[in-house]
């Protein structure tokens, strides 16, 4: 089993690693690949006691390096099939990394679950294919958590001839102690390969939860270059800090990342108090001169990217009854519509997008720093390079609404799969569908339909308004605005998986963003007359759908 991902963040420094499979695993090896050169992070038998081992030599990971891992398994002596999965009778491939980063750039949890470049493994060092022999007494120590498969695995523990150069010293006690000490640190990368369509269960859920529970949620945010999640309210950007709460004991400050339950949801239970987000009221970005702000995102360097409408306004005079833009004669927005800001002090770092757009709407930034935006007046989707004046890709036909493969009708948002490059567009206000394109812009498929009823079924939308791609679970989640809910679908299949809906959402749910590691952020809409739900942001555990915090601006 091979895993590889391009690293797209600030430098990190590795100091320990841990490997994990079930009984069939013989050797797990992890590498940094830079300019074709393979540098060993660590290799170890997964049959040894579970512990973090120190790297033999310091290893630094820089932007665009590749992190790669290989797990070697043997089914010798087995008479039945073994599948990828989360139970003790299945197999899995895990390579964990402990690291540190500069505090201002630190990210406390990252994952890699794909193989971005299978061909590269033709050049993996041969040592990755050579098992490490384990003494029988070490095997007894190592398999306490696999008791459920003991009988099935008796035949798999075949002893091999001892090779002097591969013998492992009896250092289990030392490494167990080291693991306990390092386990108090929070900087862990979890590399895990599994079948995302199967329910995460048993060992898998326990392993992931074990990693996540080691995170100190307060320290995580203060280390993120102060790039806290910003919440949009009309044409002003509010910045928030996440703070500790005193409502619950410290040992409960965690959430468990598990495979979400499939099927149609209902009202998910709410639970708050683990931590709290408060506005940074003195953030200078409040004084920015902006038009209607329609989109916010973070680029790969953790800078804040703002998409705004300049001197154009979307109001009751913007469109006719057939959704044709009525102010074409005014021309495009003459100001730069995309602004890149330092999130700490709101200093303008870069700007672009002049004379391109009429009514900006959605904004997302892919792993390569490209901007993906929508324009509801042009009925188009654009891909823009950070330093390019002309679009790299345009989808849709300018100023022509439609519902076929070549037209949109007021598209609202874009999400790009970091692995396949597939492009997902929420074609919203007049089409109520999700459209998938290849990385080059070739139409692949669409799903969804509009509905005017309050009891909307799965796959029915009333203004699919915002998209969040969940790479850990290969899901695309949609803020179904007028239905006041979140719907999640399989990335490749487009099949409905689950719904998340809370009474506190009210009737409308506008925006949504996912943070790798398991947090989902959403923002609802203004309450209808006679209703009480306030406009606010929600922080949710993606796995359970629970609300774990709410927040709103001090100044409206």
UniProtKB/TrEMBL annotation:
Keyword Repeat: yes
InterPro entries: 6-blade_b-propeller_TolB-like, Cu2_ascorb_mOase-like_C, Cu2_ascorb_mOase_CS-2, Cu2_monoox_C, NHL_repeat, PHM/PNGase_F_dom_sf
Basic and acidic residues: compositionally biased ranges: 143-154
NHL repeat feature ranges: 346-387, 400-440, 448-492
Example of a GO MF term: peptidylglycine monooxygenase activity
Organism: Crypturellus undulatus
Enzyme class label: oxidoreductase
Domain Copper type II ascorbate-dependent monooxygenase C-terminal: 3-124
Key words of the record: Copper, Disulfide bond, Glycoprotein, Metal-binding, Monooxygenase, Oxidoreductase, Repeat, Signal
Cofactor: Cu(2+)
Protein's name in the database: peptidylglycine monooxygenase
Reactions that this protein is recorded to catalyse: a [peptide]-C-terminal glycine + 2 L-ascorbate + O2 = a [peptide]-C-terminal (2S)-2-hydroxyglycine + 2 monodehydro-L-ascorbate radical + H2O
EC number: 1.14.17.3
GO cellular component, one term: extracellular region
Keyword Metal-binding on entry: yes
Region of interest (Disordered), ranges: 143-165
Species classification: Eukaryota, Metazoa, Chordata, Craniata, Vertebrata
